[in-house]
Amino acid sequence: MDIDFIDKKLQEIYKELEREVMEILMDESLDKKQTNLRVKPITSTKKILENALESIKMVDKLSKEDIKK
Q1: What is d(CA 48, CA 41) in angstroms, rounded to the nearest whole number?
Q2: CA–CA gap between residue 46 and residue 32 (Å, rounded)
Q3: Is the pLDDT of residue 48 over 80?
Q4: Reduced to 3 states, what is the DSSP secondary structure of residue 4?
Q5: CA-CA distance, 12 to 5, in Å (whole number)?
Q6: The pTM is what?
Q7: How far apart are CA 7 and CA 20, in angstroms?
Q8: Which pLDDT value is given to residue 69?
Q9: Are 15 and 42 in contact (CB under 8 A)?
């Protein structure tokens, strides 16, 4: 499994999510509640992707350890 490739692609997604968050934060027509409601799903998505990457890394590590045995 090419973990580096997966990590690289996720970094691209993170950058896009950050761009979206910045657009929302810069939108002066939104009040604090609207801003939070729009940002929360994006931050949740990023956290889910980070957790998925950690899980992939763990599975890969365990797989490599099993192969060595």
Answers
A1: 10
A2: 21
A3: yes
A4: helix
A5: 11
A6: 0.82
A7: 20
A8: 73
A9: no
